[in-house]
């Protein structure tokens, strides 16, 4: 079995050996992976593209008659060259926010004088 074969329904995507092992270990089928890549929201952060299906995507697609509830919380990490690096479940999307370094603000304190 060729583990790095292209995903059938989404041309251009390739699966790494690591991603294949993680899918088997975590019980995430190839069908779920393809569903997340097709219907999921794409978040660009830390040099990767992460496809996720959260409750918003489930609700939006349910209105269209598409049931993707079993994929809620599945996240797929891809490179810019369409290679799937890893796949996991996590319903918390807080860690997907881009990390910005905020410049230190200089607070100007007014000096009040009492007369």
From TrEMBL:
Q: Which InterPro entries match?
A: DUF4258 (IPR025354)
Q: What is this protein called?
A: DUF4258 domain-containing protein
One of the Pfam families matching this protein, by short name: DUF4258
């Amino acid at each position: 079995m060729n583990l790095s074969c292209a995903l059938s329904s989404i041309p251009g995507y390739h699966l790494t050996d690591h991603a294949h092992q993680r899918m088997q270990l975590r019980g995430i089928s190839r069908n779920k992976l393809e569903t997340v890549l097709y219907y999921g929201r794409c978040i660009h952060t830390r040099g990767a593209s992460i496809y996720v299906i959260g409750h918003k995507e489930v609700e939006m697609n349910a209105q269209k008659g598409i049931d993707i509830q079993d994929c809620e919380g599945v996240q797929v990490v891809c490179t810019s060259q369409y290679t799937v690096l890893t796949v996991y479940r996590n319903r918390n999307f807080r860690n997907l926010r881009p990390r910005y370094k905020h410049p230190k603000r200089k607070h100007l304190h007014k000096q009040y004088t009492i007369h």
